[in-house]
Amino acid sequence: MRASDIGEFNLIDILRRLLGKGGGDLVCGAGDDAALFRGRDGGLWAYTTDAMVEGVHFDLSYTSWHSLGYRALAVNLSDLASMGGYGTSYALVALGLRGDVEVEAVEEMYRGMLECGEAFSCRVAGGDIVRSPGGLFVSVSLVGALEGDRYLARGNARPGELILATGFLGDSRLGMLWLAGGGDAAHPCALRHLYPRPRREEGRLALQLGATAAIDVSDGLLRDLGHICEESGVGAEIHLDDIPVSREARELAAALGTDPLQAALHGGEDYELLLTAAEDASEEMAERLPASVIGKVTEGSGVTVLDREGKRVEVSRSGYEHFGEE
Amino acid sequence: MRASDIGEFNLIDILRRLLGKGGGDLVCGAGDDAALFRGRDGGLWAYTTDAMVEGVHFDLSYTSWHSLGYRALAVNLSDLASMGGYGTSYALVALGLRGDVEVEAVEEMYRGMLECGEAFSCRVAGGDIVRSPGGLFVSVSLVGALEGDRYLARGNARPGELILATGFLGDSRLGMLWLAGGGDAAHPCALRHLYPRPRREEGRLALQLGATAAIDVSDGLLRDLGHICEESGVGAEIHLDDIPVSREARELAAALGTDPLQAALHGGEDYELLLTAAEDASEEMAERLPASVIGKVTEGSGVTVLDREGKRVEVSRSGYEHFGEE
After folding, report:
1. What ipTM goes with this model?
2. What is the pTM of this model?
3. Which residues of chain B have pLDDT under 50?
4. CATH: 3.90.650.10, 3.40.50.970, 3.40.50.2000, 3.40.50.720. Which one for B154-322?
5. Which of A139, A142, A154 should one mutate to test binding to chain B, selecting the residue with the greatest count of B CBs within 10 A?
6. Cβ pair B47:A92 closer than 8 A
7. Long-range contacts of B285-289 (CB under 8 A, 24+ apart)
C-alpha cells in the first residue's frame, strides 16, 4: 500500500500506534499539537515540529522570503499556543535549499523568522542547511516551557461544554486565493495568510480561565474540530451563523465570487484557536480573549453543522446543502 | 549571489551572524554541534537538528528503510554526545514523503528509529508528515538534558593540549563505497555506515575526565578538526601514523584499491568524537574511553598533517604528498 493511497491522517494513525502514547516523563507523545515532556525539576516542556515544502505548502510566486520565514515559525508557535501558551521558546531550522536560491533570499527568510520570534518570545537557536535539489523545504522545530503544570489537550472536551473560536476564520484561504490571482500582498486577508499570528496570549488566558481542550486551525474548522471530537470521544454541533467571518473576508469573497463560510469551514491556515469550556468559563473567555461561541460539545461523534433554524446542513468541500429539503 | 556559489559553510557563517551567538538563557546559539539553553531550574538542555535528503545524504538503492531511520536519529544523538553526553532526550521527526513510498517502508523506518532510541536513551515523541513530490527528506530534531552544568564546546581547545579520537576513522566511507558497488550490507564497514553508534558514554566520560573541546566526525577528520581550530583560534598537528584505522578498513580499502587513510581524513560520517584535553587528562581518556591520541593543539591556525618522520604532508581530497620533496 502506498502512502498516497491511505492519506496523511491514516499514515499518522499507523505511526502513532508504533510510537505509543507516551509514558513516564513523556507526558504526551504523538497525536496532539505538541508533545509534552517533563524536565528534571518536573516542569513541562512542549515540543513540536512542522515542515513546509515548496509547491505544497507555499508558492514563491506570491510568498515573499520574509513572509516564508515568519510563517514557518508562526505555525509552530501556534502549536505551542494551543497547548495553553508558553513562557520562553527555542527554535531550530532545518533548511533544504536548491543551489540556485539567492543568498540574500535566505537572509531575508531568516529576518522574517527573527521578526516573528521577537514578537512572540522565541529565540532562533540555529539549525542545519542541506542541499535539496528536488525543491525547497523549511522544517522548524520548537521547544517551549509551559508556565504551570496544566495544559490544553485535544482529548479533554466533554459533552455539554461550549466551543469557541478566537479571531476570524476563512481570511487566510481567501487571502491565498487573492494572492494566487495576482492580488496585492497588503490586503488584510493576504496579510493574514502571509503573517499568521500565533495566539500565545489567548492560549495562556484560555487555560487560566478554565478551557478544557484546544487545537489550532491549520486544516480548517471542520477537520480540526473533528480531531478534538475523535480524541475526546465526543461529537460537536456548530451554528453556521455564529462562525466568525470578518468584514474583509466577506467583501473579498464577494469580489472573488466565492462563499466566505466555505473558506471558514474548510480553508485552514488561520491559526486561530478552537477551544472548549464549561458554560460559565466560556462566557468569561468570550469576553476576555476575546472569542466567539460557535457551538457545543455533544455525546456521539462527528461535527454537525446547523443553520439559523437549527436544521442540519450537509457540508462538503464543494458546498453545503440542507438535509431533507427538495 | 547564489547559495551554490558560496557553499554550505559560508552560508552558515552569514546566517550565524544574523542569528547572533546567544545570550541570556540561550547559552550557546548557532555554531556548535548543538544549541544550549537553560530551563527554569537552571539545568542545561542541548538542542539540535539534522536533515537528510534522498540522493544527497542517502541512497535507497543500498540503504534499507530500517537503517535510514536508525541513522537519522543516530547522527542527531551524536551531536548531543559531542556536547558531553546527555541524560534523557526526546526526538521529533519531520518526514517529507513522495506519494509512491510504501506505507510498510515508512513503518520500517520508524522501527529503525525506535531501535536506535531504545539503545541510546531517546524517546521518539512524534513529528510531522508532509507531501514532498521532489524527493524524500527526514528532518530530526532532538532535545536532551545535560547532566551537569559543564559541556564540551568547539571553541575551548588550547595550545599544548592533545587531540584524541574515539574508535576508528574511515570505516563509514569505505563501507559506503562497498555498498555502492553492490557489496553485502553485513560487512563490518557497511554496518558502520548504515548503523553509526552515537558516542554517548564516551562524551559523558570525556567531560568527566577533563576534556575541553569536542566535535563529532560528520564531515571528515580534517574538516571537523578544522572547525575546532577556527572556533578556538588555534592550530592543530596530527600524525598520519596515529590515525586509528581498523583492520576491516585496511582490508576493504585494499580490496577496493583505495587508501584507508584518505577515507579516514576526508570520509566523514564516522560519528566518532574528536576531543582535546590537557596531557594528563588525555592519558586517562585514552585508556578509559578508549581513544587514540592523534596529535596536539598548537598556536596558529589550520590543521597540519605530519608523517612518521615528522615531515609535513600536503593532503588534498585527491591524495596527499610530501612537502619539499622532488
Report:
1. 0.92
2. 0.94
3. 322-326
4. 3.90.650.10
5. A139
6. yes
7. B285/B164, B285/B205, B285/B206, B285/B209, B285/B210, B285/B211, B286/B164, B288/B205, B288/B209, B289/B164, B289/B166, B289/B202, B289/B205, B289/B206
